[in-house]
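Why should sequence recovery work at all? Because a backbone constrains its sequence more than one might expect. Tight turns favour small or flexible residues, buried strands favour hydrophobic ones, and helices have their own preferences. The token representation captures these environments compactly. In the example below, the structure is given first.
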């Protein structure tokens, strides 16, 4: 069953303010800065808040939380924010944590430049042929521009595929890629996946916030016999196409 958390509830908003103070402290204590993309920061803060409410801990929202009980969750390699891999490896070597919220000054400037460049490229890269789109659907990873082309081709009737959001209901409601067909959240993945088990021959594109949770789901779906499953590289945070919000 998909768990629905009301992001406008007093409980959530109160917890969100605590989370914002928490991420502010991480920034201050480790001499970091926020990502220049405020949507990335807000998504991560809301994800941390969600996990705090569900699991009682601020597990990283970019990774699937493994384990049904608190004891099982403790015994796995679930990431607690700020996670050790981010502080000891990702930020020192790459300039930002995997989720992208915590950055060095240099990386934040790089992100800002990349965002401007990506917007310029996207306006000149649409209109792929049917054959090119079908080839894209066989890839393990696709980028934002490729997904925009696929959605455009599907709207024109050239190809068919299912676009699946593996984030949580509260993320889906607040912001999702326009054209998403199914919400199959990681917290109720196997139950929700039953909705499309009879469509395993239809190509699938999965996405989450940054590409990590969806990559995990991608592997499971392939093991379960889905013919073609592509993962959106860097998730919705990298997507420059149309988005929508609200429940269906």
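From this structural description, the recovered sequence reads:
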């Amino acid at each position: 069953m998909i768990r629905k958390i009301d992001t406008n509830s007093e409980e959530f908003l109160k917890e969100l303010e605590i989370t914002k103070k928490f991420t502010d402290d991480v920034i201050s204590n480790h001499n970091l800065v926020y990502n220049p993309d405020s949507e990335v920061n807000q998504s991560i803060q809301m994800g941390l808040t969600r996990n705090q409410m569900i699991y009682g801990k601020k597990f990283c929202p970019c990774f699937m939380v493994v384990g049904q009980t608190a004891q099982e969750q403790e015994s796995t390699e679930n990431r607690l924010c700020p996670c050790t891999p981010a502080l000891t490896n990702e930020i020192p070597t790459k300039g930002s944590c995997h989720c992208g919220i915590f950055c060095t000054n240099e990386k934040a400037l790089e992100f800002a430049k990349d965002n401007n460049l990506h917007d310029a490229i996207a306006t000149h890269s649409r209109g792929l042929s049917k054959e090119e789109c079908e080839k894209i659907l066989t890839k393990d990873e696709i980028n934002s521009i490729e997904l925009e082309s696929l959605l455009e081709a599907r709207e024109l009737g050239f190809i068919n595929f299912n676009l699946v959001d593996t984030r949580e209901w509260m993320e889906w409601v607040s912001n999702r890629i326009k054209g998403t067909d199914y919400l199959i959240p990681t917290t109720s993945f196997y139950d929700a996946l039953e909705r499309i088990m009879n469509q395993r021959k239809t190509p699938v594109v999965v996405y989450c916030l940054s590409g990590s949770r969806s990559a995990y789901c991608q592997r499971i779906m392939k093991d379960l016999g889905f013919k073609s499953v592509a993962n959106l590289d860097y998730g919705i945070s990298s997507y420059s196409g149309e988005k929508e919000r609200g429940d269906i």
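A few observations help interpret the result. Residues 10-29 form the longest helix (20 residues).
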